[in-house]
């Protein structure tokens, strides 16, 4: 055992790293030579990547920028549980409390190991002079930007105040920076590096997007006779083979729809034809939503037809298929939504039932939104949304390995798909289907 693994146990009670990637990120950050960018999915233990290295530096404090007071509270509670002193400075505190924190940080030997602040707080003069002081006396171990996708206009929760953090990077060149996010697209990653002005070369630690247990394909709705029947066969086939599983581990499937009406129509039609299905959408009363989610999670009802509002916090491992009825909004969303399949590592299927009129409907909506945009910011965001949508359409209308498309989108080397998508399994068949689809869509 070296000092890093020792500290891992001593401070956080873990015997092992959660993944090889987590370990490599920790060691790179602990070396402190480069700025580090970490992109790993939610729940993979990104916090530890900076918390452990920070604990290796005695008498120093890590400054952590985090977007929400609720997130800050969670992290502080977590650290406090391990008897690590974590503090915050924010507008909700009493003056007395704030003074206490500031006094400790300005002392010769601060007890505080982590200081959590929002980017808005970072812009205040109190914080700026505190940081100046801490850096001057070499008391800062790291400056950390958590949920770093917030600096990106490609990110869904863009926050202008995050952009200003780049000025701090410029000002304090001696302190290493760490940026962490679960969002993995190339655009977002590039925005993070540029907007935060991270010092090149940045060391990057990123979970590869390729999941080899997921089979991806596309079925063109206008090329099949009975769309509902086709969908039902697909779902039934995916669900089979769990006769001996405990109810909670029973196979399940999700059909994502664009509209609330579609969720209800599809659930009804599937149920009528013999596959019991429930609808889930944002228009339902919250009690009903909870009940549907529970029936699905407990294995009572295997099939759910939902809008994309279904998914946050869904941690069922035995999802055997995710179908998209029509198409998805963009590749990032599609990767995330379809990625709810096969979390247990066993084979699972991800399919888009592509539909030309759905494509046109989304196209129209996005263009309308763009026409209504007033500020420059809004316009830019709409334009980005439209560009993302076009990539999604291209995904559906190009004969190219599906996993390779993802890898390119996430800026990675193409993975060895070997038949884990329709294109690699039978390229000619996909080409034929696409041709037929396009001919019929034209006529
Ligand atoms: P993320 O920020 O990537 O979403 P978190 O940092 O919140 O993830 O960590 C998710 C969970 O993983 C936490 O409960 C954390 O305690 C746990 N965790 C982190 N590292 C390890 C490890 N090496 N061994 C076991 N659990 C870990
Ligand atoms: Mg996190
Ligand atoms: Zn492939």
Mean pLDDT: 95
User: Shape from CA axes?
Assistant: elongated
What composes the largest sheet? 7 strands, parallel
Strand order, biggest sheet? 3-4-2-5-6-1-7
Number of beta strands: 13
Give the C-alpha Rg: 24 Å
Structural class, judged by helices and strands? alpha/beta
| Uncertain residue ranges | none
Kindly estimate the percentage of residues that lie in beta strands according to DSSP: 5-15%
Question: How many DSSP H or I helices?
Answer: 19
Percent of residues in helices: 40-55%
Bound small molecules, deduplicated: adenosine-5'-diphosphate, magnesium ion, zinc ion
In whole angstroms, how far apart are the ends?
69 Å
């Amino acid at each position: 055992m070296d000092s890093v693994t020792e500290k891992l146990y001593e401070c956080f009670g873990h015997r092992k790293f959660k993944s090889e990637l987590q370990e490599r990120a920790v060691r790179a950050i602990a070396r402190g030579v480069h700025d580090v960018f970490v992109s790993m999915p939610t729940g993979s233990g990104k916090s530890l990547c900076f918390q452990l290295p920070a604990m290796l530096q005695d008498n120093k404090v890590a400054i952590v920028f985090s977007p929400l007071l609720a997130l800050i509270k969670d992290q502080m509670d977590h650290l406090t549980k391990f008897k690590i002193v974590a503090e915050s400075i924010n507008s909700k505190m009493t003056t007395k409390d704030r003074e206490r924190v500031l006094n400790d940080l300005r002392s010769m030997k601060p007890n505080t190991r982590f200081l959590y602040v929002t980017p808005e707080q970072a812009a205040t003069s109190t914080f700026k002079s505190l940081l100046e002081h801490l850096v001057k006396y070499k008391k800062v171990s790291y400056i950390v930007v958590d949920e770093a996708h917030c600096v990106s206009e490609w990110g869904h929760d863009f926050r202008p105040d995050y952009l200003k953090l780049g000025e701090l990077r410029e000002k304090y060149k001696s302190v290493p920076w760490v940026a962490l996010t679960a969002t993995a697209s190339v655009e977002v990653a590039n925005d993070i590096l540029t907007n935060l002005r991270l010092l090149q070369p940045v060391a990057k630690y990123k979970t590869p997007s390729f999941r080899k247990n997921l089979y991806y394909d596309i079925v063109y709705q206008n090329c099949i006779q009975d769309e509902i029947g086709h969908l039902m066969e697909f779902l039934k086939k995916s669900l089979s083979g769990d006769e001996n599983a405990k109810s909670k581990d029973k196979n399940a499937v999700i059909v994502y729809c664009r509209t609330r009406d579609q969720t209800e129509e599809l659930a009804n039609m599937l149920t009528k034809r013999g596959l019991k299905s429930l609808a889930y959408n944002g228009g339902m009363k919250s009690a009903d939503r909870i009940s549907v989610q529970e029936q699905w999670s407990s294995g009572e009802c295997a099939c759910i037809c939902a809008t994309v509002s279904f998914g946050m916090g869904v941690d069922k491992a035995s999802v055997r298929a995710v179908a998209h009825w029509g198409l998805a909004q963009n590749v990032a969303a599609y990767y995330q939504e379809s990625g709810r399949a096969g979390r247990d590592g066993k084979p699972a299927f991800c399919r888009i039932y592509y539909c030309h009129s759905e494509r046109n409907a989304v196209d129209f909506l996005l263009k309308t939104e763009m026409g209504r945009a007033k500020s420059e910011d809004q316009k830019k965001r709409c334009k980005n949304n439209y560009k993302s949508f076009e990539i999604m359409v291209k995904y559906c209308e190009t004969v190219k390995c599906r996993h390779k498309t993802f890898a390119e989108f996430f800026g990675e080397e193409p993975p060895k798909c070997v038949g884990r998508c329709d294109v690699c399994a039978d390229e000619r068949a996909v080409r034929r289907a696409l041709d037929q689809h396009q001919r019929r869509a034209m006529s």
